[in-house]
Each structure stands twice: as structure tokens, then as C-alpha cells.
Amino acid sequence: MTSSQDPSNQTPEYLSTIEVAQMLGLAVRSVQLMVDRGELEAWRTSGGHRRIVHESVMRWLASRQRDPMGNSSQTSHTHAGTKPKECKILLIEDSAHFQNLVALLIKQHFPNASLHLASDGISGLTKFGQIQPDFLLVDILLPGIDGAALISTLKSDPQFARCKLIIVTGLNKGQLLPYEFALKGLPVIHKTNLVNELVPLLNTQIVQHLST
For the chain, which domains are there? Predict the structure, then answer.
């Protein structure tokens, strides 16, 4: 329900409509309409700007019954009736918003996957060596070491050969040009399209992983 008062006595995390639009891969107007319909919980500042409760965004995502490919969330991870083996996914991302979003998508669509998190490139390299993940999701802009340098380092590691890599970024095509040397041949998902593109891409790669 939309409220006109600032709930100052509460301490949830609030997001702007632009931030929610980027998280969900939707137009800002679509997010505004979702607030107006009561699908997202929000309040308005004294200047009339919407502030959306982060938890309500996560609840909305969790309530989705079907994935972007039109398959049931309970079956999107299966392959020809084969019981999926557990796979390990490492996400190297410094944004708590996107860590939470990826965690929710993985939990909802890939219950047999274990997700591990690193908030910077240095800890990401350490966890990669410790975990030996099957899938690696990496942001390009990271504190400590940027994603391109991280990817180049991993490519020189023989253990990297068995790991599938997906790039997640907020940069546009022009901004990605300096990183082309590291991104060649790798799938790249823009953060505004994360909800729509990550699940089907991971689903395809997990099927391939199961068949090897």
C-alpha cells in the first residue's frame, strides 16, 4: 500500500523508482504504476518522490511463479528428467542490491545450486581458489581489482578451464570497449536485464554442465 508519510520510526532500506527499474529491467513508468497498484510498498517524500521498500521488491520477485522462459520455477533447472547435481556459483559483485537479487533468483530457480559471494576482486580471487566454482558471475567494476584484470588473471589459471563465466555489468556498449580484450567470447548481461536474462542463460549452461 502506498503511504504519504515518512515511516521514520522504521529502518528498512528504501529505493528510488529509478533504482527499482534498474533492478527489475523495467521502465521507470512501469515501476510507478506498480506502486500505484499496490504491488510495491512505498511512501512519498515531501517533494513527492516515491521511496520503495526494498523488501517489497524482493517479495514481488519471489511471488513470480514462472521464469522468463515460461517454465515453472520448480522445473527450470531440470534436464530430461535427470535429477540435477549440485553446482557451485560464485558471484563477485560489490552492490548489496544485486547480491540480494542474484541470491533470490538462484534460490527460486536453482535450488540445487549453492551461491557464494565476494564483494571485491581480491576476495573473489581467494574464494575462487577455495571454492572451485562451476559458474562464475563477475561485475566489471570492482573495488581492489577491476573485473577485466580479474578475468585475465583467472584465464591464466588452469583450474579456470572448467568454470563457466558470465559477465554482469552496468556499463553500456561504449563504456565496455576498453574491456573487449577480456570479454571476448563471454556472455555479458546488463544489470537492467538481469531478471530477464540470467535465469535462461544459467539454465542453458547448467544443462551443458550436467551433460559433461
Answer: 2-62 (1.10.1660.10), 87-211 (3.40.50.2300)
